């Protein structure tokens, strides 16, 4: 039952997340790239392509678009100019931080609809669930 409820929650929230991505004009691959850069930098472009499971030319296209948008920048290794290190820019970090705001707003309205008395045990249950998710990694 709990697994079903989690699936239903994800299914309910997903349109709000997709709305954020769509409004920013991000593809799922671009979004994935931004999150990998946030979590695993610094990586060379070739390491990044391997991590994402894409060809170097596909990665170049993704990086070109995100660089035009101002979300990523590229620096070259001073010792080996063939090595390129893509990285998030400040606007890129802001985009990642802001993604999901529509979902957060939706959750806030749901919590307010529950009321304080009903929200408290839900909060405790979600805290326990978050710990379980982290332990399951």
Detailed description of the structure:
By secondary structure, this protein is mostly helical. The protein has a domain at 27-99: Orthogonal Bundle (Arc Repressor Mutant, subunit A). Helices cover 74% and strands 7% of the residues. It has helices at residues 2-24, 28-40, 45-52, 56-68, 90-98, 101-114, 116-136, and strands spanning 72-76, 84-88. A hairpin with a 7-residue loop joins strand 1 (72-76) and strand 2. The longest helix has 23 residues, at 2-24. It is elongated.
Q: Bin the strand percentage.
A: 5-15%
Mean pLDDT: 87
Q: Determine the structural class based on helices, strands and strand pairing.
A: mainly alpha
Distance between the termini: 21 Å
Query: Got a strand count?
Result: 2
- Compressed to H and E, one letter per element, the order equals HHHHEEHHH
Largest sheet: 2 strands, antiparallel
Radius of gyration: 19 Å
The CATH architecture of the domain at 27-99 can be given as Orthogonal Bundle
What are the segments in which pLDDT stays under 50 over at least 5 consecutive residues?
A: none
Q: Class of the domain at 27-99 in CATH? A: Mainly Alpha
Number of helices: 7
**Backbone shape:** elongated
Order of strands, widest sheet: 1-2
Going by CATH, the homologous superfamily of the domain at 27-99 would be: Winged helix-like DNA-binding domain superfamily/Winged helix DNA-binding domain
Helix content: over 70%
- CATH fold descriptor of the domain at 27-99: Arc Repressor Mutant, subunit A
